[in-house]
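Quick one, tokens below:
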């Protein structure tokens, strides 16, 4: 009996010692190194150039290759010598297409802030047509607010048409202006409710300027083409700023759909023949 008790104490002691040891071992382990998530994770490098004079290397990153429509781009700015991220910069975009007989610009959105926590600056360009029709260049004038220098990076951009277009244009029957409507969301439609976002720009100054248009009222009516029916509970897009209108579209089943748009200027229909086609997987 006494022997058993001693043995029990011995076991308890052993367990305690091993617990203390393992605790010590844990303390001695270096803290797990956090996996550094790259600011460009999930994006692809599309272009790179030096902003000559600004001491800055500019990389263009995006989720997809350049396509006809609204391209969300991310400019990654680095000091051209040290490679360190430039976290304070003023960026002015300047897209231009040379079509041989004429030139035109494109809608764009400069980065919203001069400050970036990681050197990545979100911006956007709406390429109005593919490079089949001419040569696109995207210039970015960079003022590196860290070194105080300004320079321009110039990119030759190859723009491809998508199999299903994400940009449409119409001439307003009320103002006679040409308007471009770009589909921003959904990027990949699903069965059920989808966030819907379009951005509208107006062509002025012979196509050299494309200001955002916030003047229209937008109504949508989805149609499942092959079966001839619509869907309930859609939300008409309303203007949220910078020409962006957000709402929701309900795809009740997979298959071929189109979203029919009606644009109103005041109470008058400016256009009701614009639609985006999509295939819902
Ligand atoms: Cu063109």
């Amino acid at each position: 009996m006494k022997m058993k008790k001693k043995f029990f104490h011995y076991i308890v002691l052993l367990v305690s010692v091993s617990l203390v040891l393992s605790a010590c071992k844990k303390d001695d382990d270096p803290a797990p190194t956090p996996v550094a998530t790259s600011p460009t994770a999930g994006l692809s490098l599309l272009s790179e150039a030096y902003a000559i004079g600004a001491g800055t290397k500019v990389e263009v990153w995006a989720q997809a290759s350049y396509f006809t429509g609204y391209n969300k781009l991310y400019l990654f700015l680095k000091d051209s010598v040290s490679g360190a991220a430039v976290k304070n910069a003023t960026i002015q975009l300047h897209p231009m297409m040379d079509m041989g007989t004429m030139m035109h610009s494109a809608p764009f959105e400069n980065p919203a802030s001069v400050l970036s926590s990681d050197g990545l600056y979100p911006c956007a360009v709406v390429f109005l047509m593919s490079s089949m029709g001419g040569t696109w260049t995207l210039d970015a004038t960079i003022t590196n607010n860290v070194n105080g220098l300004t320079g321009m990076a110039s990119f030759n951009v190859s723009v491809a048409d998508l199999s299903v277009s994400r940009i449409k244009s119409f001439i307003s029957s009320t103002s006679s202006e040409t308007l471009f409507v770009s589909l921003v969301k959904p990027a990949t439609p699903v069965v059920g409710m989808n966030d819907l976002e379009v951005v509208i720009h107006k062509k002025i100054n012979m196509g050299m300027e494309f200001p955002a248009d916030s003047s229209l009222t937008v109504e949508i009516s989805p149609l499942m083409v092959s079966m001839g029916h619509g869907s309930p509970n859609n939300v008409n897009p309303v203007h949220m700023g910078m020409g962006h209108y957000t709402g929701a579209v309900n795809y009740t089943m997979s298959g071929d759909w189109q979203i029919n748009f009606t644009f109103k200027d005041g109470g008058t229909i400016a256009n009701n023949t614009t639609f985006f086609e999509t295939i819902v997987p």
